[in-house]
Amino acid sequence: MLFKSIVATIGLLAVSGSLAAKEKRPNLEKTFEGLHGNFGTRNTDKATVISGPTAVKMLRGEAPGKCWQVKLGDVGFKLTIEDKLDLKVQECLARLEKLPPSYRKAFAIVSEGKKDGVAFYQDLEGASAHGSQDYLNLVKDADALVIAHECGHVLEQRVTSKLPKTLAQWKSAIKKDGISVSAYGDQVAHEDLAEFSYVYATCLDGGKLDALQALSPLRFSEWEDILKAAEPVKVP
Ligand SMILES: [Zn+2]
């Protein structure tokens, strides 16, 4: 989940934690924030609509919406937009096109069976996004960086369901690496992981993976394992 409006407050609280007390280096988010502006602008794959729209009752509160089946590269997934939200399909797809190709399987995971796929809502009670292996919900203004964070939750949960020690290993990696990913990530291990997912995406996109690996080698290795291991259920 991502509550942008409270990040600053949580940041202040987190500074009093033991990690921040020992930590003098800038966090990973700060170190690589220069990559945000051009994030995804070099990706050339374009998403195409395969079918739709179909009228649906969305999973969150049965909100009326429209669903499209789309394809981006070799990954098929669903896109659903709440009817009361004024947002064009192409605008949503342009945002998803910015994610590194290796993150697209998160879109397929949240499209399995009766799931809504990538779902845009008018309102998520103050949050900008929610992500799990069952949904990837976004508000209108959620950008590609927020989506990269939520993909972290989707992919981690998919791997944890097969390898239950995933988050315990992540906690150990946080401790050994001895550097904060971001103030938001300092709250709890699964948010640290989602924040790392977004920072990794910007470094992958911006050619800075070596620098990220040097600063946080154990998170780096754990995250690459998760990225590789998370798989959508194959449709027969
Ligand atoms: Zn989150």
Q: How many DSSP E strands?
A: 6
If you average the pLDDT, what whole number results? 92
**Rg estimate, integer Å:** 17 Å
User: Low-confidence segments, ≥5 residues, pLDDT <50?
Assistant: 5-17
Secondary structure class reads: alpha/beta
What does this structure look like?
This protein is of the alpha/beta class and 236 residues long. The protein has a domain at 48-142. The chain contains ten helices and six strands. The chain has helices at 7-15, 18-22, 28-31, 89-96, 105-109, 144-160, 166-177, 189-206, 209-215, 217-229; strands at residues 48-57, 64-72, 75-82, 118-121, 129-131, 136-139. A six-stranded mixed β-sheet has the order 1-2-3-4-6-5. Strand 5 and strand 6 form a beta hairpin. The two termini are 32 Å apart. It binds zinc ion. Zinc ion binds at residues 1-2, 149, 153, 191, 194.
Key features of this structure:
alpha/beta; 10 helices; about 15% strand; binds zinc ion
Short précis:
This protein has ten helices and six strands; from the N terminus they run αααβββααβββααααα. It is α/β, with parallel strands linked by helices and 236 residues long. Bound molecules: zinc ion.
Question: What does the secondary structure layout of this molecule look like, with pairings?
Answer:
Blueprint: H1 7-15, H2 18-22, H3 28-31, E1 48-57, E2 64-72, E3 75-82, H4 89-96, H5 105-109, E4 118-121, E5 129-131, E6 136-139, H6 144-160, H7 166-177, H8 189-206, H9 209-215, H10 217-229
Parallel strand pairs: 3-4, 4-6
Antiparallel strand pairs: 1-2, 2-3, 5-6
Helix pairs in contact: 6-8, 7-8, 7-10, 9-10
Zinc ion is lined by residues 1-2, 149, 153, 191, 194.
